[in-house]
Amino acid sequence: MTGLPLRQLLMSLGEPLVELQAAPAGLDVPVRHVSILDPEDPPTAAPGELVLAIGARGRAALPALRAAGRARAAAVAVKLDGPGQADALREAATEAGVALLSVRRETRWEHLDSLTRTLLSGADDPDGTGGAGPGGPATGDLFSLAQTVAVLTGGIVSIEDTSSRVLAYSRTSETDEVDDLRRLSILGRQGPEPYLAKLREWGVFSHLRGSEGAIEIAAHPELGIRRRLAIAIRSGAQPLGTIWVQEGSRPLTDTAEQALVGAARVAAGQLVRRRRELSADTRLTQTLLTGLLEGSTGPQSLATHLGLDVRRPVTVLAYAPAATDGRDAELSRDEVTGLISVHTAARHRGALLAPVDSRVYVLLPELPPGLPPATLRDWTQETVDAARDHLSIPLRAAIGPTVPGLADVPASRAQADRILDAMGRGGVVPDVAALQDVQAEVLVSEVLALLQDRPELRDPRLTALTAYDARHHTRLAESVLAYLDALGEVRTAAEALHIHPNTLRYRVRRAEQLTGLDLAQPQQRLLAMLQLRLPD
C-alpha cells in the first residue's frame, strides 16, 4: 500500500476533528496504516502508521512519541487537557521526527479510527483522488472574485477557461452598457465564434499567452465591441483561462491593470485544483495560518505545507472596519476580504489572508531584505483607499513590525492588534499606522483598558461625577476633560465645546464642589484626564 500523504489525510479529516501541532518530516509523509495504542500496552508502532494514543494525555504521551519516532511511524494523535501540554509534546515530536496531531476532546476515538481507515482504503484507487471523487472547478468563489474585480476596475467582468467557456461573471445593473460580445458570451456560456475569430485575427490570444500583465483591446464600434482589458490566468507556464474587463458607461479606473494582476493570481489558485481538493487545501492553509497567528501552531507546519523559508523576514498587516454604516457585517467582511486579497496578491505573490472575527490579517512571508517601511505603508494605504472609494467601507489598518522569520509572526500580529485597539478608541489617528505613528495613543489605550478592567484603580470621585451627569443630564465630566486637554486654557476649551467661557468656568467649579476634586493638584489632573476618557 503506497499510503495517503499526511497532507491529504488532514485535509480530509478537517479541523473539526484534528489539528496539526508538528510535522518535522513534512506533510508528504505517507500514512499507510492506523493503530490504536491502549494505555495499558507498551508503546509500539510500525513504519507509516498513524498511532491513536488513547488515554495518553500530556507527558504520558511522550513514550508513544518516542516509540513512533524509532519505528518511523507517520504520526501520533493525542488529546490535550490544556494549552500548556502542546509545547512539551511538540518539542518531543520534533526531536523524534514524527508528526503530532491533537484530537478534539469531544471526538470519539472509534469515530476517528473508522474515518481514517475509510480514507486509507481509498488511497490507491486508480484515478488518484484518494477516494474523494471527482469535482469541477471552484466556480462559486469565482463569481465573488468577478464582482470584486468589477468594483476595483469600474468595468464589467467575465472569467473564462482556456476554451473561452464562461466560468463566472460580475453582476450588471440597468445602467451598465453591455456590448454584444459580453451579452452573447453570457447567454451562450461561451464566446461566439465570429467574435473569437476576430480576437484571434487581432493577435489577442497570442499576446495573452506571452504576457504576464494585462493587455488592452481597443473598441470596435462597427462590431459592437467596447474597449477591454484582459489578462491570462496561469499556473507557472500552464494557461488556465482569462479575465476580461469590458469598459461600460464610464472609463476604467487608473488602477484597473494592477487589480487584474492580483485577480489573475487569486483566480489561478481557484482553478488549479478540483473543487474538493481546493476546498480542503484552503481549509488546511487557513487552519495552519490562524494557528501560527495565535501562537498555537509552530511555524514549521505552515512552512512545510506551502514551501516557505522560515528564516526569511515576514510582516503581519491587520485590517478592521472603522464603521459598517448599517450594512450587513458578514457581507461587508466578505467584500473587504475579497478586495484585500486582490490588492495584496497584486503586490506580493505569496501573501496569505486569515479573517478572524471582525479583523482580516495578511501575512507577507519571505519579504526581500531591506524592504523600505514606506513600501508596506503604500501597499496598505492603497487597500484602505480602495475600500473607501469602491465599497464605501472605511477601514483602519495596522502594520506590524517586520520580524526575522515565521517563528516571530505572533509578535508581529500582537503589535498590529495593539495598534488597531488604540485606533478603535478614537482620537486623531491616521487610517494606516505603524507603532511609531501612534506610540502614545497605543500606550494610553492600554492604560485605559487596564482601568476599564480594574475598577479598584479608579478614583471614586470621578466615578461619582460621571454618575451625576447620567442622572441629571449634565455635561460636567465632558467639560472638565476639555478643560484639562486644553491645559487650563478656558477660551480654547470653551470653543471646542461650543459654549461661553463663563459657562465652562462654572461647570469646572461645580464639578470640584460636588466631588471634592482639586484640579490644582497634578496627580488628580492626571488621573482625571485618563479616567474621564473611559467609555460610559
UniProtKB/TrEMBL annotation:
Record Pfam families: GGDEF_2, HTH_30
Sequence ranges assigned to domain CdaR GGDEF-like in this UniProt record: 301-421
Renumbered residue ranges of the record's region Disordered: 119-139
Domain of life: Bacteria
Boundaries of every PucR C-terminal helix-turn-helix domain copy: 476-534
InterPro entries hit by this protein: CdaR-like_regulators, CdaR_GGDEF, PucR_C-HTH_dom, PucR_C-HTH_sf
Bias-annotated ranges (Gly residues): 128-138
PANTHER family: CARBOHYDRATE DIACID REGULATOR, CONSERVED PROTEIN
Similarity field: Belongs to the CdaR family.
Protein name: PucR family transcriptional regulator
Lineage: Bacteria, Bacillati, Actinomycetota, Actinomycetes, Kitasatosporales
